Amino acid sequence: MAFNPARNAALAMMCSLVLAGCGPSYSPDSYDSAAVQKANAVDQGVIIGARAVGVTDNGSTGAITGAAAGGIAGSQLPGSGATSALGALGGSLIGSVVGRSSEKIVGATTAFEYIVRKTDDKLISVTQQDEKPLTVGTKVLVIAGPQARIVVDYTVKLPDPPKPPAPKPPPTPPSVLEPEAP
User: How is the chain split into domains, by residue range?
Assistant: First the structure.
């Protein structure tokens, strides 16, 4: 098969874009498989602040993928030895830049940063993607773990358990009768 630089560059770019789309999810409604069946601490709280923020991907997966694809494409240059090595090096560099840029563009998104006052009066911040932001004043659960999340408090308040009956006072000893005087 003849060397086709345009086809090889397009293939490298396509591989980078496909893998760049495999970015992380910042949704409170999806869990990474490694987080399933793990116990996480949960605190109750109230949202006291919310704002939209931008989230950017660091592009490392795209850079690695692009470098590999570019290196393979570049090594296909006609010739051998130094030409092939230089082609692979150049392809790796160009593929890395293209892959990183592609992943950053595809992985960039918006999310919401929430400030929550927990029941112990401590403040925490969690950033996550929501279709629409949670509103200030909403009672929430803060779920800790490798992928922290905030969800509307869906717990049910259970009635207080019945109090055990008060212990009966010990019986009073019978009074000692004093003998009557003669």
Answer: 5-25+36-152
